[in-house]
Amino acid sequence: MKVAIIQLAYGDDESVGERTARVADLVRAQAGHDLVVLPELWPAGGFDYRHWDERAEAVDGPVATALAAAARDARVTLHGGSIVERAAPHGTDGRGLFNTSLVFSPEGRLVATYRKIHRFGFGEGEPVLLDAGADLVLVDVPVRGASGDRERSVRVGLSTCYDLRFPELYRRLVDAGAEAFLVPAAWPMARISHWTLLGQARAVEDQCVVIQCNTAGTHARHEMGGHSQVVDATGKVLALAGADEEVLSIDIDTSATAAWRDAFPVLTDRRLAT
């Protein structure tokens, strides 16, 4: 599976429209990949809480429309990072806003959405402003063979940023058939060692490929951490970005995951299955 991770950098001086157009062009430049991944909340600003409400939109809004067109033009499966989604609230005390990931097919169809389950902020930010998601989401990513035709698919589990700290989510994704985890994020530089370490931990304990796409740059007075990475099912880091805007391109041997699980069958020795 050939993957492009777009570690996007942005600041406070770029409008949402300008950023969306720039991101769409970056996606189009990744033609030839099977999967392209963007970071969390790049349209609204990962820590730009005061603008989230005004920048919220539906899953068929202008950002989604631009991403769908870019996926179709590049003929890639696109994980569009996440938006602040405006939708019906969860319950009578809901806010009607969610941190929602969007996945588009190579034909430009919206094929999956994932509402972030674990909201970061310890009583501020996401827990105050956004509703929590509740659903486990997996999506099949078509993969090209040597002939250029899409011969098989890889089943990937979706999660977002702070979710990475909750191993029970990833164990449930493995039990649902995940071969890889996708983790778009707006993870700050102050805790970047946790980001890389937790990615390796989730890979080792679940014998699963972990694809992490972080944000770069500085916005809303928060320096973002970068260091997007790909970790294989043994915990080996296959690719690691720096701190600035960068595109990581890597061809992942997904068949190696099944081979490792067969050779070192940790998952079959579980005693406390959830």
TrEMBL record:
Transmembrane segments: none annotated. It comes from Intrasporangium oryzae NRRL B-24470. Keywords: Acyltransferase, Transferase. Belongs to the carbon-nitrogen hydrolase superfamily. NIT1/NIT2 family. Pfam families: CN_hydrolase. The lineage of its organism: Bacteria, Bacillati, Actinomycetota, Actinomycetes, Micrococcales. Residues 1-254 form the CN hydrolase domain. The keyword Ribonucleoprotein does not apply. One of its GO terms (molecular function) is acyltransferase activity. It comes from the Bacteria. This is Acyltransferase.
